[in-house]
Amino acid sequence: MAGNVLVVGAGGVSSVAVHKMAMNAEIFGKITLASRTKSKCDDIAASVKARTGVEVATAALDAMDVAATVALIRETGAELVVNVALPYQDLVLMDACLEAGVHYLDTANYEPEDEAKFEYHWQWAYQDKFKEAGLTAILGSGFDPGVTSVFATWLRKHKLDGIRQLDVLDCNGGDNGKAFATNFNPEINIREVTADAKHWEGGEWVISPAMSHKVNFDFPEVGPKNMYLMYHEELESLSTHFPEIERARFWMTFGDAYINHVTVLQNIGMTAITPVMHDGHEIIPLQFLKTVLPDPGDLGALTKGKTCIGDIATGPAKDGSGEKTFYIYNICDHEECYAEVGSQAVAYTTGVPAMIGAAMVLGGQWKAPGVWNMEQLDPDPFMEMLNTQGLPWQVHELDAPVDF
Ligand code: NDP
């Protein structure tokens, strides 16, 4: 039987997730979409209605108000809250789910607003509360974290006895014609790329300055691109849950123009997250910058090219044939995504896994009391849905372990 869902947040990722939920009516019953700005929810609902014929209910909600969220969950009869608002809302939405007695899922780990700290400990601290309540919380059901974590688990279940080295490679080979624009929420994106790079090596974190380690990699169907070593939150959960990992790294591609713009913005203080006085008002430079940058939600019609995101993993082969390396990835075309749901591929590759994770909870495949990162759950039903829901994957053996 289909389950009711409350989706919180009405940005680029939400729009894709809600369209895809509506396309899977046998899994998703009543869909309610709530955000601070109700008109954004109404625009998404109108697009869903036009494309699929499905009605989406909408509501105004400030998720920082736990009582209001609890009231809305009860009113909608939702079994699950899908949090595709911002990482700042994770803990309050988890609190609301516990109070209302419903399951929880998000796509990014909690961050305090005044510190760019991407750490799981705040959400892992909810483990006992969710377990005791018999409720499920799924953390990070986007592409990375999300699909890349499930890819690693699938390789570990079917191909390798353990993962010795893991590299997550995130390539956006798309072009939107703008001098500078981010692919998802500019504030969150810039906080991420200006943070120190950090990777897991020999049982400890190795820290290096942001964007200081560059490698040129030839991506399938995209071609050669410069990718940069970065910290990304799944490194923390993967190195915790797969303790055999000796080295885990995250790489993301950026063009020279993007790097130049971020460098200048950083040098002149526009990426700062501490308040400054401007004309008698306190403003946060990065939040002001977000206001003047293109809205990623408007880039769909302009973006051409493909994304290629995946994992390269090395470890002892299951068949006893010695050490093997596999490259597992998805290729997604910006224009095809736009034709299907009216969004570019970065929102698509996040919104589709959010929908699939939600389907796993409602369908019972991933319904287990507690707080879970994606790599802790059975990868098979999720991997099957990726193939049928627009994110098909491929796996190839490489001749040798990569050594960038
Ligand atoms: P957007 O900025 O486009 O949308 C965020 C939405 O959240 C907006 O509609 C906004 O509200 C709403 N919101 C913010 N604060 C509140 C609040 N207090 N109460 C209710 N709604 C609120 O973001 P994206 O769609 O680009 O990203 C969504 C999430 O997905 C982020 O957490 C991001 O980090 C994550 N992400 C994860 C990826 C992955 O692969 N795992 C990749 C990309 C993104 P309003 O209605 O006022 O505009």
TrEMBL record:
SUPFAM superfamilies: NAD(P)-binding Rossmann-fold domains (SSF51735). Residues 142-391 form the Saccharopine dehydrogenase-like C-terminal domain. Residues 5-138 form the Saccharopine dehydrogenase NADP binding domain. The lineage of its organism: Bacteria, Pseudomonadati, Pseudomonadota, Alphaproteobacteria, Rhodobacterales. This is Saccharopine dehydrogenase family protein. InterPro entries: NAD(P)-bd_dom_sf, Sacchrp_dh-like_C, Sacchrp_dh_NADP-bd.
